[in-house]
Amino acid sequence: MIELEGPLGNSDAVNRELVSLERELSTLRKNGTIDSFGLYLYGLVLKEKGSENLARTVLVESVNSYPWNWNAWSELQSLCTTENLQHWLTDDKARDQFVIRAGSDTEVLWNDARHLKPEPIYKRSFWTESFVQWSPLGTYLATVHRQGAAVWGGATSFNRFMRYAHPQVKLIDFSPGERFLVTYSSHEPSNPRDTHRVVLNIFDLRTGKVMRDFKGSADEFAIGALITWAGFQSSRLSKANRQMLFIGHQLAASLYWQG
To answer: How far, in Å, CA of 146 to CA of 169, rounded?
Structure first.
């Protein structure tokens, strides 16, 4: 993941090396001396900068040059999503949405307090195999399945935005800024004398790529598995075990994500 700003997203903490990298990649592209992976890297930098139109063009050039770079395809897909994921914010009655489950049915409705009754938006049977969960900003609705999780969004259709592979996932959580998704599972050992095996995955929400994972026995964690987003306005992800508390950096041995 490329960070153009500081750990709290402050615009005055710009990574100058990436600014020079963007300039260098732009020159190579203009001269026609850049390869497909250079185009992919250039597209990532442009995307993080917010230059999505140019990023889309550069990523198309990358996959045309080398179609087997699946990460480039994923980034391109996220840029080509035309669904307005914040459409519910434009409701002229300023209503909130809520979701209910009854049997095999899951339904999203408007909370129409003025008329004292809900207004149906979208209903689907067997939408999830476990539970559903809103993201912190209400952009996505997550569903949980035997093979992993999925997030959905849109105006009234709730199209699937991305899948996240994690067999037998038990719990999920979003980072406060909705940039990452954490999935958790605990697996019983084949030998009764052994402890449960814990698996934690941290996904890039937009691309579905695993950014970091933690695996080990439950004994290595404080209480099964303790994962928490740090308080205040930070979105640091911490991991606690019996030896120490990790609040790491994306390039360090532990973990630090801006969410």
So the answer is: 7
Whether the Cβ atoms of residue 25 and residue 41 lie closer than 8 Å to each other:
yes
Burial of 114 (0-12, 13-18, 19+ CB in 10 A): exposed
Domains and CATH numbers, the chain: 16-79 (no CATH), 128-246 (2.130.10.10)
SS (H, E, C) the chain: CCCCCCCCCCCCCCCHHHHHHHHHHHHHHHHCCCCHHHHHHHHHHHHHHCCHHHHHHHHHHHHHHCCCCHHHHHHHHHHCCCCCCCHHHHCCCCCEEEEEEECCEEEEEEECCCCCCCEEEEEEECCCCCCEEECCCCCCEEEEECCEEEEEECCCCCEEEEEEECCCCCEEEECCCCCEEEEEEEECCCCCCCCCEEEEEEEECCCCCEEEEEEEEHHHEEEEEEEEECCCCCCCEEEEECCCEECCCCCCCCCCCCC
Whole-number Å distance between alpha carbons of 32 and 85: 37
| Beta bridge mates, 201 | 183, 213
109: nearest Cα among 156, 151, 175, 154: 156
Dist. CA 242–CA 221, nearest whole Å? 6
What digits encode the pLDDT tens for the residues 217-243? 877 765 444 445 443 333 444 444 444
* Global confidence as pTM: 0.60
